[in-house]
Design brief:
The chain is an alpha+beta fold. It is built from 10 helices and 4 strands. The chain is elongated.
Length: 270
DNA sequence: AACTGCTCCAACCGCCCTAAG
DNA sequence: TCTTAGGGCGGTTGGAGCAGT
């Protein structure tokens, strides 16, 4: 049994919004406020999916949106935040008032990627393009790591292909693939208590202090973040947890603070 | 003018998470 | 504890607009 669709697709409009639809949506939200997107279209007299209404409002109609080109300061802030957060566009957008995750995502894909490449940097890793990849890759588990089956993983979940039949080997491959895909997320969600933070320098005292917030100017765009810190639970080197370090002892990338927590620390610009 | 290729971005899709029952 | 609806998110797509030929 699959999930029921979010709306009756046969009776909804798709594609570009008309001015009339925009006006109806704006007017409805002005009177009733945001919320309950599923029932909104009917109440507002719109032949649209609730999700579509939400997207239209959040990405285009919201009155607090800042339209227009990104400033160089915003460019740099996005780059810095991406180097820390990866493709967490909503988190990045949260640091750029008036910008939406969709807008930033599009801008990243169309402008900033190229900008970084022209600087000789890999847009995903923020490291030099010609450098051998030795950084922490949160999306790939170590090759030799035996990954346990998740509790929620069922055979039914994995044994169907588009043709409807699979061999045992295919099933195993699919399960392994799925586990690999889940690995990075799982590491972050379950085993690591990651505290992302941006600081101003590499010293130990600053490491402690740097669990803090961004150093922001009045406009919230001037950010000093030459280093990235990832903090993990007591007594375990982060690199070991991720499988990049064979022994639990401290590796060269991690430092231990006074609370016994291990931090991964690497310069963003290196 | 017509065609082609490229860029940009609004919108959609499908999955995941979470709160409520 | 389990199920499900609803919201949120990241990845992808499609089409409008523009430049080059």
């Amino acid at each position: 049994m699959g999930r029921s669709p979010c709306c009756e697709k046969a009776h909804t409009n798709k594609g570009a919004w008309t001015k009339e639809e925009d006006q109806r949506l704006i007017e409805y939200i002005r009177v009733h406020g945001e919320g309950c997107w599923r029932s909104l279209p009917k109440a507002a007299g719109l032949l649209r999916c609730g999700k579509s209404c939400r997207l239209r409002w959040i990405n285009y109609l919201r009155p607090d949106l800042k339209r227009g080109n990104f400033t160089p300061e915003e460019d740099e802030l996005i780059i810095k935040l991406h180097s820390l957060l990866g493709n967490k566009w909503s988190l990045i957008a949260g640091r750029l008032p008036g910008r939406t995750d969709n807008e930033i995502k599009n801008y990243w894909n169309t402008h900033i990627k190229r900008k970084l490449i022209s600087r000789g940097l890999n847009p995903q890793t923020h490291r030099p393009l010609n450098e051998n990849s030795t950084h922490l890759d949160f999306n790939s588990p170590p090759h030799d790591l035996a990954l346990p089956l998740r509790k929620t993983e069922s055979i039914e979940e994995n044994n169907c292909t588009s043709s409807g039949t699979t061999t045992d080997e295919e099933q195993q491959q699919q399960q392994q693939q799925k586990r690999k895909e889940n690995y990075g997320q799982e590491k972050c969600n379950q085993k690591l208590n990651l505290e992302l933070s941006i600081g101003v320098g590499p010293t130990q005292s600053e490491l402690t202090r740097a669990s803090s917030n961004f150093a922001e100017s009045k406009q919230g765009v001037e950010v000093h973040c030459n280093y990235q810190f990832l903090e993990v639970k007591q007594g375990v080197c982060l690199c070991w947890q991720l499988g990049f370090q064979r022994r639990e002892e401290l590796c060269r990338n991690c430092t231990q603070n006074s609370a016994g927590l291990f931090r991964y620390c690497s310069p963003l610009d290196s």
